[in-house]
UniProtKB/TrEMBL annotation:
Organism: Belliella aquatica
Upper taxonomic lineage: Bacteria, Pseudomonadati, Bacteroidota, Cytophagia, Cytophagales
NCBIfam families per UniProt: CBU_0592_membra (NF047864)
Residue ranges occupied by any CBU-0592-like domain in the UniProt entry: 2-71
Pfam short name (any one): CBU_0592
Keywords in alphabetical order: Membrane, Transmembrane, Transmembrane helix
Membrane-spanning ranges: 6-22, 29-47, 53-70
Name this polypeptide is given: CBU-0592-like domain-containing protein
Domain of life (superkingdom): Bacteria
Length: 82
């Protein structure tokens, strides 16, 4: 279970680093996916550890990332094709 937690934390850190260094955009699929994956892995880890405040925040983080992914996909689908 600790491995899930470490991988989740790494997903968050790497995605944020790549965002800040402008290698990823906040609207990219990769950015959203890394945040969703990180949240899922950390939720598994924190449920196992019975750290429910961490379960809550990581679950919310994942839901926000899913919302962002859906919103960005809908905007791309509605944008005019050239």
């Amino acid at each position: 279970m600790d491995s899930f937690g470490w991988l989740g934390a790494l997903c968050f850190l790497v995605s944020y680093f790549l965002l800040i260094t402008k290698k990823w955009e906040s609207t990219s699929f990769k950015y959203h996916f890394a945040n969703i994956l990180g949240a899922v892995l950390l939720v598994f880890n924190t449920i196992h550890d019975a750290s429910f405040p961490s379960v809550f925040i990581n679950g919310c983080w994942g839901l926000i990332a899913i919302y962002g992914l859906i919103e960005d996909r809908e905007k791309k689908d509605k944008s005019p094709k050239i």
